[in-house]
Amino acid sequence: MNRRFLAGARSGFRIFLPLSIGLIPWALVTGVALTSAGLSVVEAMGMNLMVYAGVAQIATLPLIVAGAPLWLIGLTALALNLRFLIFSAAIAKGFHDVPLKLRIPSGYLLIDGVFAVCTERMLSVRDRHWRFGYFLGPSLWGWGLWQCFVLTGVLGAGALPQDWSLEFMATIALMVILVPLSKNRAMLVAALVGGASSVLLRGMPLKLGVIVAIVIGIIAGFVAGRVLPERKEA
Amino acid sequence: MDGIWLWISFALVSMATHLPRGSFIVLGQRASLPPAVQGALRYAPAAALAAIVAPSVFVVDGAVQPFNPKFAAAVVVLMIALRWKNPWLPFIIGMGVLLGLRKGLGF
């Protein structure tokens, strides 16, 4: 723990803070879903601490409760989480000089929002302490916020206004991250193709369409980056 | 489902989450992707975010329906995010538009 680490943590936290409010409705929804599926408070929070991935938790819950075969539960979770393999590979270089005992918890903490916000700086900043702080600050904040509001959802299920479309706040948060990324033309192509493919492939089983759409979007962006003339980023 | 099976399934979902997440971060120098793949991965965040967002904006009850309250709210959010740096504005106005259309006009 030193000053450069703390400076990095502060910068990362400040960038992630407004976006992190998008986690709140998701966490509340997840907490309510865990309780309504019939889990006790200990079971719900146990799963939440072990998995720490809202989409995977909500999607596998019906299978788990219905007593589906373990291979189906595992495969469904894996399909939903394959994007993290891509994220992990994309951000890994930013951890090349970080000790193993810190890299293992870093993997546990890697969530979509932090990845989207931190990756660019993680790959460009040379100061190891500042860089690790820049990842850990927002990651720990996101983790704490997530646990608190899932617990709130678990304990308060039933008392929340269920017709307020609060889950749309998560969509808004993802859009707010997406907009500055897409100011580069090739990135915009990747986003448009990825989004359109995802809509077209929504019927694929086990949510596999999302993964296929991401791969198609990446290929489209890569090709566009080669073909389109370079343009200064705004 | 019995208690022990419940916890076994939690452990399984946990592994299916944290093996992909930790993979390259933990392996570090011992595993790396070819430079072309790394270049392509720069597009992963944009493609993934769009792939997650698009269906929740364009799809209503399993069918593509471009003109719905969420789409209207998304367009407004997009315009605000392009125009102003204020981080709270998209949430306040986006939710305002969605709830206004849903509750006020009954869409």
Automatic annotation (TrEMBL), chain A:
Do the record's keywords include Protein transport?
Answer: no
Q: Which residues cross the membrane?
A: 12-34, 46-65, 72-92, 104-123, 135-158, 164-181, 186-204, 210-228
Q: A GO BP term, please? A: L-valine transmembrane transport
Q: From what superkingdom does this record's organism come?
A: Bacteria
Topology class, membrane: Multi-pass membrane protein
Keywords associated with the record: Cell membrane, Membrane, Transmembrane, Transmembrane helix, Transport
Q: Which GO terms describe its cellular component?
A: plasma membrane
Write out the annotated subcellular location.
Cell membrane
What does the similarity note say? Belongs to the AzlC family.
Name of the protein in its database record? Branched-chain amino acid ABC transporter permease
**What is the species listed in this Swiss-Prot or TrEMBL entry?**
Denitromonas halophila
